Amino acid sequence: MIKITKATLQDAKQLAPIAKEAFLTAHGHSASEEEIDNYVADNFSEANFVTELSNQDNHYYLIYHDTKLAGYSKITLNTTNKNISSENITYMSRLYLLKEFYGLQLGKELFNFNIEFSKQHNQQGIWLAVWVENKRAIDFYIKRGFEIVGKYDFRISAAHTNPNHILYLEYNDSH
Predict the structure, then answer these.
(1) What CA–CA distance (Å, rounded) separates 156 from 173?
(2) CB-based contacts of 42: which residues, under 8 Å, 6+ apart?
(3) pLDDT tens-place string over residues 22-75
(4) For a 10 Å CB count at each end of the chain, is N or C smaller?
(5) 87: Cβ–Cβ under 8 A, 6 or more apart, which residues?
(6) Domains plus CATH for the chain?
């Protein structure tokens, strides 16, 4: 059984280890071990999640497989991007799934949930940034109609950035 729920402040404790593990699976080899460790410590602490969950602009959703937390997403409505002319667009900054749940269509379910949530809030499309070497994620989004519309340097540390594609999906009747 798949269940998607809105995250609350009480979920900060369980989000931190999921975020760390999912990030390391996809990006753990993208910089030095020290830079990755520092990035994870700075961005995926329980305290950081408390702060992010307290911000009403952030919409976090958890996805469960049976009773186990399998991943989560984070979107922000009405977040423009210099590469996209539309204004009422959603930024999906995270769609994280633990590796043990790959292949179960959970990412697709959570993605579709976010699209519907975005549309219900009168958004014209959704955009995100993906590391150019994350072929699995790029393939996932391209299959769903996203187009590469720009590039972005994702900062891991003061000395290291990873090149990212900006991908955008403009809504129409088929999405």
Answers:
(1) 37
(2) 48
(3) 999 988 888 899 999 999 999 999 999 999 999 999 999 999 999 999 999 999
(4) N
(5) 78, 80, 124
(6) 2-170 (3.40.630.30)
